[in-house]
């Protein structure tokens, strides 16, 4: 395990090694159960992603209702926001499914040496902010509150308790990622997951993704996928590892990873770098080398 991580980190900038990945891997008997759970969730994944990408919100109706208050404008804004909140509820419930499943996948992959499990269980290993959303939901909650005060009827799309949880969820800039990090951190805290194995798992994912992009072995549009995997792995590793992902002793070659994003990120370069800069927790720590801080300045 240590040898693989050393190779992934130490040779990253000079001569990336070739790490074969079987994208057509079939689940082994041992991973069949967890694979089936992943496949079930994955069926809805594309649908939700497309729905979120197309989400335009009710901004114009809300602005009209606020700037020119009238029963007609209020009614139009309410009629527009209700189906949107129903969608937001679906997004939230899907995120809850991911939050419950993700620690199970990690627990399966990290039950022993992650290197061994990645060799055996490749099928499982790789089945893995819209401002309008928060604006619409905030307007919905304010309107519901006014209705209650005036005893007006209209009906809640979601219960008050669920609305509170959804507000906390959507308030974060990367709500799904935040939920998954919290779920993994809770698993580590409760000793359901071994922190060393989890950190090694994300270090391997980051290293393998780096190698695929830097050696240009990906399929069309593959760079974007592997860069997102790499950045997500850095993010998880930094939140879970006590020393973070930026220290000299980190198992991830941060400088090589950042340079790869800058070289191959295309239109995603700034969003990916912003995740590394603003969603991690150890970048500005004293243990982070000055050269790394300057690279991300």
Structure characterization notes:
It is a single chain. The chain has 297 residues and is mostly helical. Mean pLDDT is 81; it is low at 114-128. The chain folds into 2 domains: 1-21 and 192-297; 22-125 and 130-172, no CATH class. It contains 14 helices and no strands. The chain starts with a helix and ends with a helix.
What distinguishing features does this structure have?
single chain, 297 residues, mainly alpha, 2 domains, 68% helix, 0% strand, globular
What kind of sheet is the major sheet?
none
> What fraction strand?
under 5%
Order of helices and strands: HHHHHHHHHHHHHH
Radius of gyration: 22 Å
Overall mean confidence score, pLDDT: 81
Total of DSSP H or I helical runs spanning 4+ residues:
14
Number of strands: 0
Number of domains: 2
User: What percent of the residues sit in helical stretches (DSSP H or I)?
Assistant: 55-70%
Give the overall form. Answer: globular
The N- to C-terminal Cα distance equals 33 Å
Low-pLDDT residue spans = 114-128
The SS-based structural class is: mainly alpha
């Amino acid at each position: 395990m240590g040898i693989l991580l050393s190779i992934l980190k130490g040779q990253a900038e000079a001569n990336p090694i070739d790490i074969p990945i079987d994208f057509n891997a079939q689940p082994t008997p041992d991973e069949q159960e967890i694979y089936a759970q992943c496949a079930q969730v994955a069926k809805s994944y594309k649908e939700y992603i497309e729905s979120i990408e197309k989400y335009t919100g009710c901004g114009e109706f809300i602005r009209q209702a606020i700037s020119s208050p009238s029963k007609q404008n209020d009614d139009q804004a309410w009629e527009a926001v209700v189906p949107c909140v129903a969608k937001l509820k679906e997004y939230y419930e899907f995120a809850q499914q991911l939050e419950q499943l993700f620690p199970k996948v990690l627990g399966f992959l990290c039950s022993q040496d992650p290197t061994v499990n990645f060799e055996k269980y490749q099928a499982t290993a790789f089945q893995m902010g819209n401002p309008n959303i928060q604006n619409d939901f905030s307007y919905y909650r304010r309107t519901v509150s006014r209705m209650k005060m005036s005893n007006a009827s209209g009906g809640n799309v979601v219960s008050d308790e669920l609305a509170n949880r959804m507000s906390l969820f959507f308030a974060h800039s990367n709500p799904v990622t935040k939920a998954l990090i919290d779920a993994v951190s809770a698993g580590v805290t409760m000793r359901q997951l071994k922190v060393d194995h989890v950190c090694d798992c994300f270090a391997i994912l980051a290293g393998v993704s780096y190698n695929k992009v830097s050696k240009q072995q990906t399929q069309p549009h593959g760079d974007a996928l592997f860069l997102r995997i790499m950045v997500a792995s850095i993010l998880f590793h930094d939140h879970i590892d006590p020393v973070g992902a930026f220290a000299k002793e980190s198992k991830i070659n941060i400088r090589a990873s950042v340079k790869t994003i800058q070289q191959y990120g295309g239109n995603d370069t700034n969003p990916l770098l912003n995740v590394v800069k603003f969603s991690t927790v150890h970048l500005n720590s004293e243990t982070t080398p000055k050269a790394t801080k300057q690279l991300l300045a």
